Amino acid sequence: MVQKILSLHVFEDESGKHWSKSVVDKQYKVLCVSQFTIQWILKGNTPDFYLAMPTEQAEGFYNRFLKQLRKTYRPELIKDGKFGAYMQAHIQNDGPVTIELESSAPGAATLDPKQLSKLEKQQQKKEREDQIQRPF
């Protein structure tokens, strides 16, 4: 995932050509914010986060990710928030594109097919519900 984030060509080059430069090419900062809330499903009228990694495990995982990111890139350009804290991040999106990067979930290979099928169905249900909730 670290390589994907650092190598993805999503920025313009000096001549304005889109999709030509990476974070590393441009020497940009990287802001990492842990966010368990993206791992939810709707249970009745209440979000359920049981698919999210347990806090103790997630914090270690997140810290190892940050360590690897800093080891691979320039550590002074890697910024992060406080794990588990309420934060307000002010960002400015530049363009109509959202890119979702995925890697294999830790332990996914050890799931039996029934468990994997159940998780896939839950994810599909979540995606359908997300589409219904969007006003556009």
Supply database-style keywords.
136 residues; mainly alpha; D-tyrosyl-trna(Tyr) Deacylase, Chain: A; 2 domains; two-stranded parallel ribbon; two-stranded antiparallel sheet; 4 helices; 4 strands; globular; DTD-like_sf; D-tyrosyl-tRNA(Tyr) deacylase activity; Daa-tRNA_deacyls_DTD
SSE topology sketch:
Layout: H1 2-7, H2 23-26, E1 30-32, E2 41-43, E3 46-48, H3 55-72, E4 78-80, H4 113-133
Parallel strand pairs: 1-4
Antiparallel strand pairs: 2-3
Number of helices: 4
Number of strands: 4
Distance between the termini: 30 Å
Overall geometry comes to: globular
Relative strand content: 5-15%
**Low-confidence sequence ranges:** none
CATH topology of the largest domain: D-tyrosyl-trna(Tyr) Deacylase, Chain: A
| CA radius of gyration | 17 Å
Major sheet details: 2 strands, parallel
CATH superfamily placement of the largest domain: D-tyrosyl-tRNA(Tyr) deacylase
Total domain units:
2
Question: Can you characterise this structure?
Answer:
Its EC number is 3.1.1.96. GO terms for molecular function: D-tyrosyl-tRNA(Tyr) deacylase activity. This protein is mainly alpha-helical. It has helices at residues 2-7, 23-26, 55-72, 113-133; strands spanning 30-32, 41-43, 46-48, 78-80. It is globular and about 50 Å long. 1% of the residues are buried. The model has no long low-confidence stretch (mean pLDDT 83).
